[in-house]
Structures are given as C-alpha cells and as structure tokens.
Design brief:
Jelly Rolls, 13-stranded mixed beta sheet
Length: about 325
C-alpha cells in the first residue's frame, strides 16, 4: 500500500513521470482505488503548507475505522498496577516512587500508585470521591494521608479530573507545575517525554504556578494554559478537544512530529525513531482523527508531509 501512496503523492504534486502516470491510470480502472484516491485528494487539497515550519493542516481527518482502542475501567480507591513482566516489576515501581513521595510529602509513607500500560486507560475514584480518568502510559500517585489536611496527587502523563468540592485544597503536581483546584473539571497533559505541559479547564476554577515561583496564573472556563520553554501562555480554545482522548479522538494543533511520535508510542507500543532528529521539530501538523489505525495515521502523515516511514525490527523509522 505504501508504494501506491507514493504514486498518489507524485500525481498530486505534479511530479509523476510518464511511466508513473501510466501506472496511476491503470490503478484508476479499479473503482475501489478511485474512491481511495479521492479521499487522499480531498485531504491534499485541504492541507495548508507553511514552508518555513513545514506545517500542514487537517492531514489526519480521514479514514475512520470501527476498531476501538481497548478501554479498561477500574474503580478502586487503592489500586496498584503490576507490569506484564510480573509482580516484581510492580514492586519496583512502588519502591521507586516511595523515595519520591517521601521528598514530596516530607515523611515516609506508603504511596498509592496507579499506572496504565501502553494503549490502555483506567478510571479511578480517589478517597475524597473525586474521579480521575488516566490516559495510556501514565502514572498517578498520592500519599496515604490524602484528604486529611491536603489533597495532593503527582501526575506523570495525562489525566482528566472531576474534583469533589471541599475546603481542603486539591493540588496536581505535573512536572515543573502545580495546579490548584477548587471543585472543577479539567484536563492535564504532562508526559515526561513531551516538551510541553497543558492544562485546560472545562468547568470551575484552577490556578497554575511553577514550583518555586509565587506567580499564579488563573484560568477561566474555555481556556488552556501551555507551558513550554519556561514560558506560560493562556489561550482561548475548544477545551473539549483536549479531553477528547477519552472517546478515542485526537485533535492536533500545530503539534511537532516529535510529540506525535511520542503519542503513537504510548498508544500503539511501537518505538519511533526520527532521522535526522531535527525533523521532529521542523514538521508540525494540525488536524484530527477518530479511531484510526496506526497504518492509516502513518499513511496520512507520509502523504501530506513528505516524510517517509519504514517499519523496522524494533519499531518504525521516520526519515526524510
């Protein structure tokens, strides 16, 4: 299929040789391929190119499939994920986080840890009744004294929170940021391998500040705070798009190829290498897709951006 897509690209860009054009004309004798090419042509016509940043619009909004990403729900107050390699791996996770928790909370206590595996999600209920939907390849932990004097959780990854109102503050630690909550619904994305942290507010009120910095940034409903390169920026956005992952949808807004590759790794479990590495920041993509397969997503990126994708023994190589 990849060779056929390469041929489509040559035709759409006007770079097809006479031999390639003849091969294309032969393919178009097949009604199903006519329909397929029509879908690619529509995407190509809607793509917006910004040469300096190599940015493309709506390159992923096609080819819907019925295949659902496995969604695992668990509602427990204290839940520990044991890695597929066995209980020992799960114990290592707890021991590793124990030292971190001791530094954060100032005393030695057994943390409660929830970890989702690649391609899976879970829903949990905190001791105060707050609901958390944890995205794939994410970890959330909290102290066993949660809800006594302070409600504090530590997030590495992405989660959607529905926080129960209380006089006790609710705080989310996400890498360099602290998010203070006052009974609300919001989404936080703070993966260790992404170069940006995002917090979007759907209802209620939150404030965000960098650790060690007294300056607080307050968000209103319909706003998103983006923290990148040590800078805070608040934007008016369609906040529902940033939590649409709960329904197996993804919206990209000028997202770097590197961050997209990270997302694909978390969702599908394959390792992605980008060569040269600078390509990961040079190519930016905006668009959306809904329940797409990995092959369809890679085909769309390849068609519109001009990068190539090759499957290797240990994953995929994206190259120019």
């Amino acid at each position: 299929m990849t060779n056929r897509i390469d041929l489509y690209r040559q035709v759409l860009t006007g770079e097809a040789t006479p031999e390639e054009q003849e091969s294309f004309d032969q393919l178009m004798n097949q009604p199903e391929l006519q329909k397929e090419f029509g879908e690619y042509e529509a995407i190509w016509k809607n793509a917006v190119r910004v040469p300096r940043k190599k940015s493309f619009n709506d390159v992923l909004a096609f080819a819907r499939v019925d295949k659902q990403v496995e969604f695992r729900k668990t509602q427990r107050r204290k839940y520990l994920f044991a890695a597929s390699t066995g209980l020992a791996a799960g114990v290592l996770i707890v021991l590793g986080l124990l030292a971190v928790t001791q530094m954060i909370f100032g005393h030695e206590s057994a943390p409660v840890v929830v970890k989702t595996d690649t391609g899976n999600r879970t829903t949990m209920t905190l001791p105060d009744g707050s609901e958390v939907c944890l995205n794939s390849s994410s970890t959330i932990s909290y102290d066993d004294h949660f809800n006594d004097k302070q409600r504090r959780v530590v997030l590495n990854g992405e989660a959607y929170f529905e926080v129960t109102k209380s006089k006790v503050p609710f705080i989310v630690e996400a890498k360099d940021l602290e998010i203070k909550v006052h009974g609300t619904e919001f989404n936080v994305s703070a993966y260790a391998d992404d170069d940006v942290i995002r917090a979007s507010l759907e209802s209620g009120k939150i404030s965000v500040q960098k650790k060690g910095d007294p300056t607080e940034y307050f968000l209103n409903v319909g706003q998103m705070l983006e923290y990148k390169d040590n800078r805070m920026e608040i934007k008016e956005v369609e906040v529902e798009e940033y939590s649409a992952w709960k329904s197996n949808k993804l919206y990209l807004h000028d997202e770097s190829l590197r961050n997209i590759a990270n997302w694909l790794e978390r969702q599908y479990g394959y390792h992605f290498t980008i060569k040269p590495e600078s390509l990961g920041e040079e190519v930016h993509i905006s668009g959306s897709f809904d329940n797409n397969s990995l092959e369809e997503i890679l085909d769309a990126v390849t068609l519109a951006s001009g990068v190539s994708v090759k499957q290797e023994k240990d994953g995929y190589l994206i190259y120019k």
